[in-house]
Amino acid sequence: MASYDRSRAGGSPRPPRTGDTWWYAAVAAEAPGSFSTRVRTRTRRACLGAVLVLTVVYAGLVLTATGRRWGDAALTGRRTDTVVTTLLREHPSLSGLTTLSLVLGCLLLPAVGLIRRRYALTGLAAGAVVTALAITALLQRYAPRPRFLDPGGALVPSGFPSAQTTLALGIALGLALVVPQRQRGLVVGAATLWAVAVGAYTLADGRHRPGDVIAGALVVLAVHCGLHSLLARKGRVRPAARRGAALPGLPATLPLLLVAAGGLGAGLWLLGATLAVPDAALAVPGAASYDAAGFRLAHRCGQALAAGVVATTGLLLLVLLRHVELERPPVPFRLGGPFVEAAGAPADAELVGPFTEDLDHEIS
Questions:
Q1: 200 vs 195: CA distance, rounded Å
Q2: Which of 209, 216, 282, 312 is the most buried (most CB within 10 A)?
Q3: Cis ω on the peptide bond leading into residue 354 (within 30° of 0)?
Q4: Best CA proximity match to 216, nearest among 205, 229, 200
């Protein structure tokens, strides 16, 4: 339990009342564990919710024939989308830039933590990224799913969840542990926008289906929410300043909010119209069952849903950590010595102020 959650020796001036907020617990120490408990409760619920949604996505997009058909249609639709094909043809260096940005992100995360001398939090952030990648690898290898074959009959390796999205979003959310609280919204928001771009490129390049990107984002969210819940349980969180905390992050969080709302809204609106697209594996250009417009619409629907989910995960973590400080408070000044002890220092080693209650001493 953190120091600001402990009760005072001798009791409180008054018992806690209904409506007392976290700042009263931090200042008066009258509600043991209230702030830490709130943070732990909401992050734990978010972790369980992410796992539940991941299960629904896996069951709906991998285990059902309709979900697989929609994913195949979104994958095939990238070839009929002239915007995507033109972009990839005119900018072939995007593949190298995506890989380079992931490498730089892996270097940036520990560099920021080590420069700020937050060694423990840097280790936790790196451990969260490794844990998310390990869970992704285990799901790719051992999660039951139908076999996917390419046109030549070779077995296609599973891409559920997307490792690129897991790495990019893991770095973005890991920055929340190592950057200052006032810059958290700006840094994490900008990094999450980069993770959205990485996920969009993997869909446009044909490496993954939309469900793979969505599952990668949910894995990262579950891991980080579980980590923050553990930090709150250990008393490693404390209240932060409330006024003006959201203003520095608006240049990044506002576009992220627009991407989340627009992506989820457009994706869900188009989803019903794209579920009836014919099976992409049997569709041949020029055949009666080939619907180029439907495949293109399915691809754009998948892009919108994936971008909306990735952006929502970054926003959700920022909301869960609002007014939460992860760094330890500065060491307070402490008086000591025989004169302080003679003046009646508390026996439970509370901090002693600069003025004592010894009325025989007068400061002139």
A1: 9
A2: 216
A3: no
A4: 200
Contacts of residue 356, Cβ cutoff 8 Å, sequence gap at least 6: 340, 343, 344
Strand partners, 238: 325
pLDDT by residue (tens digit) across 213-257?
A: 999 999 999 999 999 999 999 889 988 877 766 788 899 999 999
Query: 170, 108 in Cβ contact below 8 A?
Result: no
Specify whether the CB–CB gap between 251 and 186 falls below 8 A: yes
> Left if phi > 0, otherwise alpha if psi is -120 to 50, otherwise beta: which for 180?
beta
pLDDT at 285: 52
DSSP 324: E
324 bridge partner residues = 239
Q: Is the pTM of this model over 0.90?
A: no
Cα 193 to Cα 87: distance, rounded to the nearest angstrom: 19
**Buried b / exposed e across 148-159, counting CB within 10 Å, b at 16+?**
beeeeeeeeebb
The Cα 227–Cα 218 span in angstroms is 14
Q: How far apart are CA 35 and CA 25, in angstroms?
A: 7
Predicted confidence band of residue 336 (pLDDT cuts 50, 70, 90): low
Q: Could you report the per-residue pLDDT of 50-109, keeping only the tens digit for each? A: 999 999 999 999 999 889 889 988 988 888 888 888 888 898 898 899 999 999 999 999
Read off the tokens for 25. Answer: 């617990």
- Round the average pLDDT of the chain to a whole number and report it: 81
Q: How many CB atoms lie within 10 A of CB 15?
A: 8
User: What is the tens place of the pLDDT at every residue in 145-196?
Assistant: 776 655 554 555 668 999 999 999 999 999 999 999 989 999 999 999 999 9
| DSSP states of 80-146 | H-HHHHHHHHH-TTHHHHHHHHHHHHHHHHHHHHHHTT-HHHHHHHHHHHHHHHHHHHHHHHHS---
E strand spans, the chain: 238-239, 324-325
